[in-house]
Amino acid sequence: MVPRDTPGRPDKFDDDDYPAYTMGRAAEMIGATPAFLRALGEARLVTPLRSEGGHRRYSRYQLRIAQRARELVDQGTPVEAACRIIILEDQLEEALRINEELRKDDRRDPPAT
Fold first, then answer.
1. Which CATH number does the domain housing residue 29 bear?
2. What are the strands, taking DSSP E only, across 1-113?
3. Chain segment 34-71, per-residue pLDDT in tens
């Protein structure tokens, strides 16, 4: 048995991007149908990896995104609009993160006088 903390070997249980969940299990976990997950794939919000047999496999990260989409759809938002909202939320979060990093850099390196 290989220890969990073996260098160079990521622990799949801790990896948010590891495609651990089948479509059926993923749908069950977020309270949706497999058709809903396929619709998210068609909208290119969530692109599951494929097993060697061609079955869709979802990661925990993808399930969080799908869960957010399901929440929006449950509130009456069309699937396509929900996908766009999530993409824009992600872009805004990234822009805010970059802004904060730039502000920290500015505070560390005051302008020369």
1. 1.10.1660.10
2. 21-22, 49-50, 56-58
3. 999 999 999 999 999 998 899 999 999 999 999 999 99
